[in-house]
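[job 4471] stage=fold_predict status=RUNNING
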Amino acid sequence: MPRKGLSTVTDTTPRPLPQRYLTPEDVASLFGLPSVETVYQWRRKHTGPPGFRVGRHLRFDPNAVAQWVSDQTGEAA
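[job 4471] inference complete, writing structure tokens
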């Protein structure tokens, strides 16, 4: 039985990316992260997908996120 607040990954089918800029919450949800704070940590450490600011709001280009995923999976091969 999974602990409360943790999700189990059952469907590994890639979901299509939305055709709009993604919020940090969108990115966290896309990767099944337990907290949006992980996305902010990636940004601070320069290890996650590239993001940009719109005023005080952080956004991610879906194509850049897809490229980042491709780059990550290419390193594992």
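[job 4471] summary: The first strand starts at residue 51 and ends at 54.
[job 4471] exit 0
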